[in-house]
Design brief:
The structure is a single chain. The chain has three helices and no strands. By secondary structure, it is an all-alpha fold. It has one domain.
């Protein structure tokens, strides 16, 4: 699922999909998965060469948390 959400975030960044539509359909799931897997993601990002793992997903989740 994290890879799927990362792909959605990339499509959003590339303006392939509309953020309002994505948020309407996935806000709850994305925020829930982010909270559940945040520590795992942070651990993965600390591994050598993995600093950008799920970076788009994390950015999206953090933005939506603040809105």
């Amino acid at each position: 699922m994290l890879n799927y959400f990362e792909s959605l975030a990339l499509l959003l960044d590339d303006k392939i999909i509309d953020e309002a539509i994505l948020e309407k359909g996935f806000r709850t799931a994305i925020l829930s998965y982010y909270e559940t897997f945040r520590e795992y993601i942070e651990d993965e990002q600390r591994e050598p060469g993995n600093a950008r793992v799920f970076v788009n997903f994390v950015s999206l989740a953090k933005r939506w948390q603040q809105s």
